[in-house]
Write a structure and sequence with these properties.
By secondary structure, the chain is mostly helical. The protein has three helices and no strands. InterPro entries: Med7/Med21-like (IPR037212), Mediator_Med21 (IPR021384).
C-alpha cells in the first residue's frame, strides 16, 4: 500500500475516532434543557457501564494521539518535491501568463456586460415607442 493511501486511511480512522469520542461524551453527559418545546425524558445510557466517561475520554485521546503521530510520520516520509531552476522559472512564467490572461478575460467580460446593457437599453427604447 502506498503512503498516500496509508495517510488517507489514517485520516479516515482519525475522523471516526473524533466522531466516536464526541458520541461517547454526549452519551455519558447529563442533559441540559435548551428548548422548552422539546422536553428531556431520559438520559442516554452507555452499553459498557464498567467504564466511566473519563475512561472513554482517556482511551479516545490515546488513540487519537497515536493516529495523529502515525499521520505525521507518514507525511514526513513522503519525498520532497524538488524543482530545478529551469522548471521553477517556467512555472513562474506560466503563472504570470495566467494572471495576464485572467485580467484580459475579466476586461472582455466587462466589455461584453456593458455592450449587453447598451443593447438592452436600446431594445427598451424601441419597445417604448
Amino acid at each position: 500500500m502506498d503512503k498516500v493511501t496509508q495517510i488517507q486511511l489514517s485520516l479516515e480512522q482519525l475522523s471516526l475516532l473524533f466522531v466516536s469520542s464526541i458520541d461517547s461524551i454526549n452519551k455519558s453527559s447529563g442533559f441540559k434543557q435548551v428548548d422548552s418545546h422539546y422536553p428531556i425524558t431520559q438520559k442516554n445510557v452507555l452499553t459498557d457501564s464498567s467504564k466511566t466517561s473519563k475512561d472513554h475520554v482517556d482511551e479516545y485521546s490515546t488513540q487519537i494521539l497515536e493516529v495523529s503521530k502515525k499521520i505525521d510520520s507518514l507525511i514526513d516520509s513522503l519525498p520532497e518535491l524538488e524543482l530545478s531552476k529551469d522548471i521553477q522559472t517556467e512555472v513562474n512564467n506560466k503563472e504570470r501568463q495566467l494572471r495576464t490572461l485572467q485580467r484580459d478575460l475579466d476586461d472582455e467580460v466587462l466589455k461584453a456586460k456593458k455592450f449587453s446593457d447598451e443593447i438592452s437599453g436600446l431594445f427598451n427604447k424601441v419597445t417604448e415607442v
